[in-house]
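Late entry, iron/sulfur cluster complex.
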Amino acid sequence: MTKQIVFTITLLITLGIFAFTVNRLIGFFRFTKRNFPVRNIGRRFRIMLDVAIGQTKIFRRPVIGLFHALVFWGFCVIVIGSIEMVIDGLFGSDKSLKVLGIFYKVIIASGDIFGLLVAISILIFLARRLFFHIARFEGIEMIPKTHIDAIVALSMIFLLMVSLLGMNAGYYAHQKTAAEAIAGSYPVSSLFSRIFAGMSLQTSSNIYQSCWWCHIILIFIFANILPYSKHFHVFMSVPNVFLSRLEPLGKLINMDSVTREVKLMLNPNAVLASPPVSGIPIERFGVKYCNDVSWKSYFDSLSCTQCGRCTSVCPANITGKMLSPRKIMMDLRARMKEKGPGLVKNGLDYDDKKSLVRDYISEEELWACTTCNACAQECPININQPSLIVEMRRYLVMEEGSAPGGLKTVFSNIENNGAPWQFSPEDRLLWAKDLEMNVH
Ligand code: SF4
Ligand code: SF4
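Prediction complete; structure with ligand written out below:
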């Protein structure tokens, strides 16, 4: 009974802190734009199964991709055992899901094997971060805090797996010593349990119980640290893939308000007959502040794993430009974290005299982008960085008239000559002046 009471209080504290964090984030989302409709649910499910569950994009780097996929699949299986622990903790039962029979054996055996595989994978990830120079873990956005964040989260996952295997081994040893039935199957922990051979019933029980508590407390702490860490992708990546942009990556999405203005010029009667698409008055062209972004861009920024796969394929970054698509996502998240509380407290008028464009992301970075979409193509969780970059450029051009000199010439040529070139429309056919034509 004491165990149940302590567990229930611990669970309530965990859920309370988590609810506070989620509520805080929802508060930030309220200040983003709603211009990302979610349709085609069936197609989205297929993409989610392929990219998130199947981890297909991760396998583009086969070796390290395999270790990452093992961690992801391991989490999916192990989480069932964690649910059982919560049920047991609340109701004072032990191995409550054993009623599932053979399915239970398969799940527990898979979790046991994955526990070891995940632990090995995490050790490899830690070694890479600590002892090897991996180019994509470097960059101006990768400050010491980001490395510490990653190392803390990886270490916690490792401890989670050690406590899981310790718990399983302790349980196995206890049941064997007591000659009682073993619920589930433990292909890995049964081997580790030999360490406990010869121990008394009480000792093996103590090992089982202390590992049980360590494991569940670590889960509770981890769940509450994640939203403040790059490892928030543990929660966010699958829904983010479900919410992937469905249009071809190269397609620039027109701005409704601008499209309407152009149509108005071409055919005023037809356009006036139909109401504006959004029905919402335009506040800003493009993105200047973090609260100008779409809710999907903010979702992207929270999901970013900071893996650097995008930056590693960015032609601008590779050729020494300032641009790093990973930094764009990290800057948006950091900026919303900084400004969000002020927005929630004071409303949309809150202004701390800083903006996402310039204070966080420079014009030089934005104009270095070739909109090649290599970053979006490579991102393992289908984040769309170019759409945010284009929105920030739209702000610069449409609200500030600010663009690199070469582009300004193109804009004025389009305005004056109807083409990007510096020739009058009347001269357009001069190239054919001296050609002999057969006219029938
Ligand atoms: S779209 Fe822009 S940010 Fe993305 S890879 Fe290409 S140049 Fe880099
Ligand atoms: S945007 Fe995607 S590819 Fe780039 S660092 Fe984040 S998760 Fe990795």
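DSSP finds 19 helices and no strands in the chain. Will revisit in the morning.
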